[in-house]
Structures are given as C-alpha cells and as structure tokens.
Amino acid sequence: MQLASGWLGNLVFALAIVGFLFGGQFVDKSFARKAGHTYFPACFSFGWFGYIPVALYRLLYSRTLMPKPGSHVRVINLETATASGNKSWLIGYYLQSCMRSMRRQLGSSPNQFRIFVFTSERIKPPSIYTVYMDDVFRASFLIAQFVASFTLGFMRNDWGVLVITLYGTLLSGWIGCLSQWNTEKNPPLGDSGHTYALRSTAHPLELMVIKSGSEEKVVLSLDHLAQSYRPASSKVLSIHLLPFILSLFLLHKVITLETSQTVLWIVGILGMLDNFISSWWTRDPEEWDMGVNLKEVILGPNIMHALMAYQTSYGHGIALRREYFPDKVDPMVEDWWNGDTAEYDAARKRNDKTVVHSMQ
Fold it and tell me: Do residues 264 and 351 share a domain?
C-alpha cells in the first residue's frame, strides 16, 4: 500500500501515463528512422514508458524491431507490370519524405496529378560522421538534458536525475546499435535494375517513380524489400532483449525517484520534444542512402494524359494505366496504349495541359 501511494503520489507518474498513451509512437518512429545510422537515435523521455512495452512485445512476438508501415503504399514494378502491398516501414517513409520535399519545392497542387521521376545511381554509403540538421537538433536537446540535470546535481548535490539521463542515453545508444536494425532496414538484396513506382492511397494524385539512371542498372529491388520479413534468430533475440529489460528497471527508477520534480519534468519533456521532431522529420530524397536524384516532374489535371506523357518519355507505363484505370477505357485510348497513337494524339493536343518540368 505504501509503495502504491508512493507511485501515485509522484507527479512524474502522471506524465508517465501521458508518455505511455501518446509518446511511445514518437520514440518508435525515431528509432525506426535513425537506429543503425547514428549513435543516439532518440533522447530518453517519458515516451519510453509507451515504447519499451510495445518494443518488447514486438521483439518477443514477431522477433522484429521495425514498426509496421504507417500508411498503405502500393509498390509497382513497371517492367514486370506487377503490383504488391508494402510491409516495409522504410518504403512508406521514403514516399512520405518525397511528397513533403516536393511540396516544399513545387508548392501544393490539390487538383493536379504529379509524377516525380527519380533516377538511381550507385553511390558510396554516407559516412557515419555525416551530420544532418536533425542530428544537430537531437544533439541540442541531449546537451540541454545534461545541462539541466548537472545543474541540479551541482547546486543541490542531487545527482539522481543526471544518473537517469546518462543511463537512458547509454541505453538509447545500445538499442540503436543492435544488429537487427540493419538486418531489417538493409536486407541483402541485389540491384534489380527495374523501374518502380510508389503510390500512397492517402495521396493518390502523387506518384513517385524510381528508375535506373545508368547502364549499371542499380535500382534496389523495392518489391522484394516491400515483402521482406527477417526475424531475429533465437541467439540474436536473447542478446537483444537485455537492453529493453534494463530499460524497464530505468522506468521504475524514474517513477520512484525522490528528487526535484521540476528538473525531472524538464529532462523528460525535452526528450519528448526531440522524439516528436525526429519522428516527423523528413529528409530530401537526395539525402537518402538510395542514391536517387529528381530528373523530371510530369504535371497535369488529366491523369490519363500525364500517364501518356510518362509512357512517351520512358515506356513501361502500362502497369500505371492498369493501376489507375483497372476497368475498360475508351477504344481510342486503348488503341493508343496498343501503339496506334496518331489518332488520339491529334485529339488530345487540343486540350492537353500536361507539363513536363526538367529538374536537372
């Protein structure tokens, strides 16, 4: 009874509940984005109360660390004219990043159909020392956490918050270095050289196409990545469970810690701000590890005409026509896709408002 009253009487317990209900998803996305590529993927925060139980359940149940995709994405292989659903969180993130980046560069066009054509080249993987703006934000929040907790220890000789901050940061680094992240995020797939289109059901008027930009044909097999499932082995699982179990002890210590509530709140809220910013941060496609560059944007109010413009420039557009027009089309349009383009081209030139913007 005394233990229960001690927990419930602690103000941090209330914020822990908030972190459990709302903050866990932000920590989850932060680790999904950064784990395996940075030293500390996520600052320690009250959001860990929500993340650690979910991560433990996922690790024990499916032996994976990556979350499920947040949005439904269709992966279309334009050369084989096949389409599949997506099970990879990374592909959903790539498409979301592309759409946000393009809206920043080109503005929003709610009534326009847009095809973003990217070319893929073989590149050297970025150095682990490469610094991006979101890394700067995370470092700033991390430093602020340590400054606040160290100030409390120095002025009041109360080092509990500093120890928790240090312990949580080290656990973040440990979890971020687990080999299972790279196993799931970078499966050993060969370059297919195929051309792929990514389409989100949430934004059906925006389409991302990735094609090989050289004779080496170096486009990653996105259809295989979309279906990949690489669970951890029993040996790897037993090793990976340890930092998550230690995190449970840390969360218990946070709730029962008798120290300055104000500083502990500051440290926890700073961490949640970092988790929130990191979970929603998107990088431009050129900053991904895929080596893609934007070549052209095809823009127009008529979906069929935009698809025809793509077919004329690049070919392999029949899969896109089937994706957007699965039913029968006008006989003249059908003739166009079968190679008899003259009659329909003459008719559509009178009202075709499709524009092709070169981005190189």
Answer: no
Pairwise CA distance, residues 217 & 192, whole Å: 7
What burial class does residue 36 get, using C-beta atoms within 10 Å of its C-beta: 0-12 exposed, 13-18 middle, 19+ buried?
buried
Q: Is residue 145 part of a domain?
A: yes
Residue 143: how many other CB atoms lie within 10 Å: 11
Q: How far apart are CA 234 and CA 218, in angstroms?
A: 34
> Does residue 51 contact residue 175 with C-beta atoms inside 8 Å?
no
Please check whether residues 137 and 157 belong to one and the same domain.
Answer: yes
Q: What's the pTM value of the predicted model, to 2 decimals?
A: 0.80
**Residues 6 or more apart from 156 whose CB is under 8 A from it?**
260
pLDDT, tens digit, 9 for 90 and up, residues 100-150 = 888 887 777 777 899 999 887 765 555 555 667 777 888 899 999 999 989
Domain residues for the domain of 32 are 2-68+132-184+251-280
36 and 176 co-located in one domain: yes
Both 26 and 122 in a single domain? Answer: no
Same domain, 168 and 199: no
Query: What backbone torsions phi and psi does residue 350 show, to the nearest 5 degrees?
Result: -70, -30
Q: Which of 100-114, 188-202, 295-309 has the largest mean confidence?
A: 295-309
Give the whole-angstrom CA distance, residue 193 versus residue 120: 9
User: What 3-state class would DSSP assign to 228?
Assistant: coil
